[in-house]
Amino acid sequence: MYVDLLERQRLFFHQGKTRDIFFRKEQLEVLKRSIKTREHDLMNALKVDLNKSTEEAFLTEIAPLYQEISHTIKHLTKWSKPQKVKAPISHFGSRGVVYSEPHGLTLIIAPWNYPVQLAFAPLIGAIAGGNCAVIKPSELTPNTSKIIKELLNESYSKDYICVVEGAVETSQRLLEQPFDYIFFTGSVAVGKVVMEAAAKQLIPVTLELGGKSPAVVDKSAKLDLAAKRIAWGKFINAGQTCVAPDYVLVHEEVKDSFLNHLKKQMDELFSQKIKSGSYPRIVSERHFERLLSFLNEGEVIKGGDFNRENLVISPTLLEEVDWNETMMKEEIFGPLLPIFSYREAEEAISIIRDRPCPLAFYIFAENEEMQKRFIHELPFGGGCINDTVMHLATPYLPFGGKGESGIGAYHGYNSFLAFTHRKSILKQTTRFDLPIRYRQDEKAMSLLRKIFR
Ligand code: NAD
User: From which domain of life does this come (predicted)?
Assistant: First the structure.
């Protein structure tokens, strides 16, 4: 079944239509129009699957797509131009050109936490790069997956862009197919499975994974603002955000004051949503039970309420969590935020360094030396100074992990780069043929030594 699909896509790809930049731009326009037309349905589906409010769904799922599509359409002609490069003296007479070529058939595997954004954002890159695409949305958000499928079926021929729905088995069967490139967003564990499957056919991959992303609050930070931005970044989508702060390290001198601000901000931003039943729910019973078990791994100092029927857990702060608890070994991925204090910057740095490389890192400080120190001494995918999450939502910054948190990056120009191959061509002159490379005598050798000093 997938063999047929890939053959049809291969045939379509070889017709060469997708190489035309106008075609690509047109298809991006189609995507934007289709999302606009089905915006209401997408939001309804997100409400059913995750209890996302219309406002949150628009801000975090839909709006970034409109921005990304407009940005891509605006810059695509420039990005896709062949780049002329210089030739060194050893290549006298020749010219170099770098073409950005589509990979061909691409596979996009998406997760459930931002099921609309994380299916369509890579697709923008796939279209911009001139590829065909197969999209496998998450089975855990079936209503959203259904609308994504309908929307793309209404907009494109399946020989160009096709949605395949299904769970692990479907994903595994797709991974056996001879795609030319795989873009995966999901957990570290499944990322390893994807990379292993891709390695069997030497298929290049981009892996957008997760991990434990720390937020550090220095004593020079504006505590009220730090608290507000950490509360927002952590508790939107019930903490089910790949770049949500996973835990906070706060300087012990400002800890009490920071916690007071944080509790206040949590109330201001989320208590109304909890009361009105519009706070997002945990995606499944399994994920819900896993998070509930974490509540026993520390002292709950705020929140800790839950509703089994609706799968809702209120924004929660914990203290006294041991670093050996499961909660501190796995990505939390829910509305629980453990708080730790530190005395010296070295201490905070070594705590973070001793753990797998985070996808995101956040430093809150007015002291610029402190900002630089944390940013440069720690490895991580990307992050913010004095904010959380927002680095993900700009097409001007490459977004991706490092080490355990992922391989490669995308958004804006970087999506175009991810979904294309750089084909280097040396165009040699035929007006003359320098004899030096053919000669093996001493004179030639001494000339070569002069050139390659
Ligand atoms: P997941 O890894 O369980 O699933 C992701 C996708 O892989 C789904 O489509 C699923 O059907 C498929 N899949 C699951 N098991 C598979 C297997 N054994 N073989 C092949 N395919 C398989 O991830 P999730 O639970 O959907 O999403 C949450 C995770 O994703 C978190 O770790 C989060 O940090 C990460 N994430 C990362 C980003 C990012 O941009 N870096 C964004 C969102 C989520």
Answer: Bacteria
Pocket lining for ligand 1, CB < 6 angstroms: 109-113, 118, 136, 138-139, 167-168, 171-172, 185-187, 190, 193, 208-210, 242, 331, 333, 359, 401, 406
C-alpha distance across the termini of the chain, in Å: 58
208 carries an active-site annotation: yes
210 CA to middle of ligand 1, Å?
9
Phi, psi of 209 (to 5 degrees): -110, -160
Kindly report the number of other CB atoms within 10 A of residue 1's CB atom.
7
Give the number of the atom of ligand 1 that is nearest the alpha carbon of residue 172. 20
Q: What is the mean pLDDT of the chain?
A: 97
Ligand 1, atom 37, lies closest to the CA of 209
- Domains of the chain are 2-209+403-425 (3.40.605.10), 214-400 (3.40.309.10)
CB-CB contact of 63 with 86 (8 Å)? no
Encode pLDDT of 291-333 as tens digits.
999 999 999 999 999 999 999 999 999 999 999 999 999 999 9
